[in-house]
Design goal:
The complex is a heterodimer of chains A (276) and B (481). Chain A has 276 residues and is of the alpha/beta class. Chain A has eleven helices and eight strands. The N terminus and C terminus of chain A are likely disordered. Chain B has 481 residues and is mainly alpha-helical. Chain B has one domain. A two-stranded antiparallel sheet of chain B has the order 2-3. Classes of the chains: A alpha/beta (276), B mainly alpha (481).
Chain lengths: 276, 481
């Protein structure tokens, strides 16, 4: 399904010519997969709708999007599949929506994950951003609700944020469309490697680093295709039952092998994960 | 010699590598964990939070904060222990009042237009000389079912859903959850259950899906099993019709619409009472456990986006529900027409079934026709009233437009309805089993036939029990014979 990097005329990719085409549900074939993560009620669905032209129900209450929604858009002639994950405060607990989100970031292997954050409550939102950055390198932080922050007299310095996090941070207002082009441009550059991210990771004490190291090498032997053994190692050290179970039952292996199937069945499977 | 032993050693190691199992991995994780110290998990989470805090502190600067004040002032009123609940009920009553008053005239106009179309259609078919059963089946069966559903349901939905969506977009729903939390806690249920209940006003299937916001499986099951006690949009027309024809009629015209809205609010409150009572009973019997703590974020109030609200409420909600009703109304209309026109021993099949069900219906203050309507309407509750009226009127042509006077005369004058019939029909409509779509959704969400069946047993059992009690009480007191 995924084609190699498209040959591009340099002019087409310059920001002045950048073009967004909303593709709605026409996501039969695509070149890149982008995931949308974020705390509840930060406007993920609004970003999703603005990009895909779909009308995913948005509402002003936390926890509205419980399953994943998928849609498509074309930017600079590259076709993207956009996956709207349920809003979560963390990826550490075993609730169903957190599991849907973390399973997709981990096993769906999106080419890039946009973490939509609320500019008016940045501290709480960064908790999740840091956890997503533990799982994957390819992260772009979208600092949403900039208009609301300004209304509340808050100044958000996204350059400082990007420097501290080691990943791009783009100010946007999804409702008005402010900053969306820049966001899409940055996503493209992160995927192409033009922007190299160095996500800040909590290293922990030396004992932890050693233990992680030891487990990681074992994991690599066991499941060589494992996308992020470091994160799984930390979860195992933490005694995360869900991850242990997934390893024992072979579910984890199955998910890794299924990779990011373009077919809907896989999406449904992930979405149904936490049902028991 | 040395070389040989070296190869065998490396052979061994390769061997052990390939035999590394998941079990080994887990046990080495277990072995490594003690080296990390007891509070390793907390430390990991804490360092994450510290990191987030320091990064946020460097990036955000507060200039002034007067806007926070307004939000907080509103919140203090809306979530106040004294005014919170009354304000909520007042708001609910206002929404229903606007819906009832606003829907009245468009409903009439739609009904007039569609039923005159039926007459013209029948006349045209007769002129063409088509056999009576084709005309009857298509126009008096299928088309009449559709006409009823569209004229009864469309106007209230087109008013109720946009208002509801505005409240949702403003950020009012989490405040409702906040206000009601103490009640759910006492019932052993999750405070977020009120969010899934709010979604249930639109559609119980949607309400059941929205219980996914509840983490604990026990509390989620409670929320799923009790969601049906919130009257969904398919049942509102029934409630509104009964409130208008029976309750409002007893009041002077100036107060009629308020009385109607008030009685719908009362029904909703009775539904909330049963939600809490059944939650309480479940969490002390088959779903034992304590209510779990949770944090609920009160989002800032946001100015609703009108375009999006109209789209969401009219296309996603109104149109969706209406299409579903239309899809079930057409075959239901056909079934009713066939039942009404197939005669066995000189009596229509519908009359046979209604007669058979009548003793049970009378026992709970209803009648056989109403129960027959509920059976035909299992796929979708929306069509209960149309089905009922079509069976009452038989296969005959409709001579009058179905306004409230006509309904009153048909039900009270010709079919012996009393106030008890109306009250019990409201109660039965509120409590009875979920529609087929919702049952299927419950099965999918719980992944268990047992809980899907339970959802029917609990609701249907309660519906029969309560209506039986009110009917017996009314008869003992001598209010009805």
């Amino acid at each position: 399904m995924r084609s190699k990097k498209l040959n591009q005329n340099p002019c087409e990719s310059c920001p002045a010519n950048a073009q967004l085409a909303q593709m709605g549900l026409k996501i039969g074939s695509f070149d890149r997969v982008v995931a949308l993560a974020g705390n509840p009620n930060t406007g993920k669905s609004t970003v999703f709708n603005a990009l895909t032209g779909l009308k995913q129900h948005t509402g002003n209450w936390p926890g509205k999007t419980v399953t994943r929604a998928e849609g498509g858009y074309v930017f600079n002639n590259i076709r993207y599949k956009l996956v709207d994950l349920p809003g979560t405060y963390s990826l550490l607990s075993a609730s169903q929506d957190e599991e849907v989100a973390r399973n997709f970031i981990l096993f769906g292997q999106p080419d890039c994950t946009i973490v939509v954050t609320d500019a008016t409550a940045l501290e709480r939102n960064l908790n999740l951003a840091l956890q997503v950055m533990e799982i994957t390198d390819h992260v772009v932080i979208a600092v949403n609700l900039m208009d609301e922050a300004r209304r509340k007299g808050l100044e958000v310095d996204t350059r400082s944020l990007a420097r501290d996090l080691g990943v791009p941070a783009i100010p946007i207002s999804a409702r008005t469309g402010e900053g969306m082009q820049t966001l899409l441009m940055t996503v493209e550059q992160v995927i192409s490697g033009e922007i190299r991210t160095q996500p800040r990771r909590v290293q922990g004490p030396p004992e932890l680093q050693q233990a992680v190291e030891a487990l990681t090498s074992k994991l690599r032997q066991l499941i060589p295709e494992m996308p992020n053994p470091r994160w799984i190692a930390i979860r195992l050290l933490d005694g995360d039952h869900r991850v242990q179970e997934a390893l024992v039952s072979g579910e984890l292996l199955e998910l890794v092998q299924a990779q990011r199937g373009a077919d809907v069945r896989f999406s449904q499977k992930i979405a149904l994960q936490g049902h028991q | 010699m040395t070389e040989a032993s070296l190869t065998s050693a490396s052979d061994d190691s390769r061997h052990s590598t390939s035999r590394l199992t998941v079990k080994d991995l887990l046990s080495s994780a277990e072995a490594l964990r003690p080296t990390l110290g007891e509070h390793f998990r907390d430390e990991l989470v804490n360092s994450l939070y510290r990191e987030a805090e320091s990064i946020a502190r460097r990036a955000v600067r507060q200039k002034d904060d007067h806007h926070y004040d307004l939000d907080q002032k509103i919140d203090r009123l809306v979530t106040s222990p004294i005014f919170g609940l009354p304000l909520m009920l007042l708001l609910l009553a206002a929404v229903f009042w606007v819906t009832i008053v606003g829907a009245n005239i468009p409903s009439q106009m739609l009904a007039n237009a569609l039923f005159s179309l039926e007459e013209q259609g029948v006349a045209a078919f007769n002129w063409l000389g088509l056999p009576w059963w084709i005309t009857g089946f298509l126009w008096n069966g299928v088309f009449r079912g559709l006409a009823w559903v569209v004229s009864v349901m469309l106007p209230p939905m087109a008013i109720f859903f946009p208002i509801f969506t505005i409240l949702e977009d403003l950020g009012y729903l989490p405040r409702v959850a906040f206000n009601l939390d103490f009640l759910f806690k006492k019932a052993g249920a999750h405070g977020k259950q009120s969010l899934s209940m709010a979604m249930g006003f639109g559609c119980n299937a949607a309400g059941v899906i929205s219980t996914r916001v509840i983490d604990s499986p026990r509390e989620r099951l409670i929320a799923i099993l009790t969601n049906n006690f919130v009257p969904c949009n398919g049942r509102f027309p029934t409630l509104i019709m009964l409130a208008t024809v029976f309750v409002a009629a007893a009041f002077p015209p100036a107060l009629a619409s308020f009385a109607a809205a008030g009685s719908v609010v009362l029904v909703v409150m009775i539904g909330a009472f049963f939600t809490l009572a059944v939650s309480w009973a479940l969490s002390r019997t088959i779903l034992k456990g304590e209510a779990s703590a949770f944090t609920l974020e009160l989002p800032p109030y946001r100015v609703p986006n009108i375009g999006r609200i109209l789209y969401t409420s009219l296309i996603d909600r109104t149109f969706f529900v209406l299409m579903r009703a239309v899809m079930t109304a057409a075959p239901a209309g056909a079934v009713i027409w066939v039942l009404g026109n197939l005669s066995v021993n000189g009596m229509s099949l519908a009359a046979h079934i209604a007669n058979f069900l009548n003793p049970l219906g009378v026992l709970i203050g209803l009648d056989g026709v109403i129960l027959l309507a509920y059976i035909i309407a299992i796929p979708a509750n929306e069509i209960v009233v149309p089905t009922m009226l079509m069976v009452y009127m038989g296969a005959g042509m409709m001579t009058e437009s179905p306004d409230h006077n006509f309904l009153y005369h048909l039900l009270v004058g010709q079919h012996g309805w009393t106030l008890l019939t109306a009250v019990n029909l409201m109660l039965f409509s509120l409590l009875h089993n979920p529609c087929a779509t919702t049952i299927l959704t419950i099965y999918k969400e719980t992944n268990s036939k047992k809980w899907a069946i339970m959802s029917v047993v609990i609701t249907l059992g309660l519906a029969f029990l309560i209506t039986f009690l009110t009917a017996s009480l009314a008869r003992l007191a001598g209010w009805v014979s």
